[in-house]
Design brief:
transmembrane; binds [(2R)-2-oxidanyl-3-phosphonooxy-propyl] (Z)-octadec-9-enoate; seven-stranded mixed β-sheet; single chain; membrane; binds ligand LIUXJHKN; alpha/beta; Glycerol-3-phosphate (1)-acyltransferase; two-stranded antiparallel sheet
Length: about 270
């Protein structure tokens, strides 16, 4: 029994020591802590959401947003947001952003407008308590392997957006990407906006490469710039305009990405690859 008491004490001594001496340990510790803490937060949020709304409801995103807001401090991250005024648009719209890591959830919760939820891969629903909280928050799940299914789910979402005055956040790259650039955009977000005839608001996260390097196993403290760009109207557009709309959005977001990432890189010294 005495030995069992020693284990937490030893851990309390060893963890800070390792945190000071090994950046690889910091990397794994922060990653583990992030997932574990999000699971715990979701566990607390589940009954709160059920009590408030009785089940799956977009209003639950307010609770989720509130509960995730402090997590950035625990990981040593700070957000610098610009372009707030562009989110002050009435009614439904589609937000599109680049997607580097599951850490994007922190930035998303930093600026998430009211009555806004996201489109996510259906595998996320199986992620334990996080999956359940995503479902309760009204997240629209799509099967990326079955394009026809994904298209019909998104067509339904276009209708729901208008009927229920909902905003949807889509990651048009369709997967996580940390290659220092944007991946070509998939078309779903743009079909969605055109079908619902609602504006698109592009949001750009600066590169995480100045604090988070997966290959080098580094997860330092850092600043993430979030730039909200002016809305792009889709009124009067048809499916014929989707490709040019996607290209235009890509060009605007890529320019903003290189701009805000470059300025972080310059102020913190060169990025190691
Ligand atoms: C309290 C604490 C709790 C804490 C826990 C966490 C808390 C909260 C969680 C909240 C946050 C959650 C955040 C979750 C993030 C998850 C992010 C993701 O999962 S990203 C992955 C999923 N998302 C996407 O994939 C969206 C983007 N994908 C697409 O848009 C794709 O287009 C598609 C999946 C719809 C189809 O894929 P694919 O076939 O590969 O794509 P295309 O080349 O774009 O399309 C092929 C042709 O089909 C046409 N098309 C596409 N979409 C449509 C459509 N909706 N309607 C009509 N036609 C469509 C397209 O034009 C192409 O045809 P073409 O002739 O070539 O033009
Ligand atoms: C019991 C099951 C345990 C499952 C554990 C997984 C739990 C994840 C928990 C916490 C992290 C919190 C943030 C969750 C939301 C982020 C989701 C995300 O970023 O999904 C990746 C997806 O966009 C793209 O995936 P791919 O790169 O295409 O693949």
């Amino acid at each position: 029994m005495d030995v069992l008491w020693m284990i937490p004490l030893l851990l309390l001594m060893i963890i800070p020591l390792l945190m000071c001496t090994s950046s690889t340990f910091v990397f794994y510790f922060k990653k583990f802590f992030y997932v574990a803490w999000m699971m715990v937060l979701a566990l607390i949020a589940i009954p709160l959401c059920i009590l408030k709304s009785g089940g799956r409801d977009i209003e639950n995103m307010r609770i989720i947003r509130f509960m995730v807001r402090h997590v950035k401090y625990l990981l040593g991250l700070r957000f610098e947001v610009s372009g707030w005024e562009h989110l002050q648009t009435e009614g439904p719209y589609v937000v599109i952003s680049n997607h580097q890591s599951s850490l994007d959830v922190l930035g998303l919760m930093e600026i998430l407008p009211d009555r806004c939820t996201t489109i996510a891969k259906k595998e996320l629903v199986y992620a334990g308590t996080v999956g359940l909280i995503c479902w309760l928050g009204g997240i629209v799940f799509i099967n990326r392997k079955k394009t026809s299914d994904a298209k019909s789910v998104m067509a339904d979402a276009a209708k729901t957006m208008l009927d229920d005055q909902i905003r949807l956040w889509v990651f048009p790259e369709g997967t996580r990407n940390q290659n220092g650039d944007l991946l070509p955009f998939k078309k779903g977000a743009f079909h969605l906006a055109v079908q619902a005839q609602v504006p698109i608001i592009p949001v750009v996260f600066s590169s995480y490469s100045n604090f988070y390097l997966r290959k080098e196993k580094q997860f330092k403290s850092g600043v993430i710039r979030l730039k909200i760009l002016p809305k792009i109207e889709t009124k009067g557009m048809t499916s014929d305009d989707v490709s040019s709309l996607s290209d235009k959005s890509f060009d605007l977001m890529r320019a903003a990405f290189l701009d805000i990432s470059d300025s972080i890189t310059r102020s913190n010294g060169p990025v190691r690859h």
